[in-house]
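can u pls check wat happens w/ adenosine monophosphate
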Amino acid sequence: MSETIFSKILRREIPADIVYEDDDVLGFRDVNPQAPVHVLFIPKTPIATLNDLTPEHAALMGRLVLAATHFAKREGFDELGYRTVFNCNQHGGQTVFHIHLHLLAGRQLGWPPG
Ligand code: AMP
């Protein structure tokens, strides 16, 4: 898969506000936040889009979701709630082709999205 800006963040070649890390997942604040809390969780293994997932990625994707829920509990907004989003390709609004889970919190979020 081609290099993305998230690969550079993983290698600490460009700065990011890192708020979560474990063996498989890195979480950092979105540079253009859409809510008071907007964090991106990425697998350390680069996968371009949801379309590239195979059954072998099932555990890794589970760990990605668990990282976000762990962060929500740690930061104390789990009870009020939050939103998690994967964007995929053009109609999904994906701009960085390294799978990432958006976590948005800290305000009432509208539905449906625009
Ligand atoms: P998506 O549109 O789903 O591909 O989301 C990509 C997200 O990455 C956008 O919300 C951007 O604001 C965010 N983003 C792009 N570059 C950076 C960066 N260097 N640090 C943090 N977030 C970034």
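The chain has a mean pLDDT of 97.
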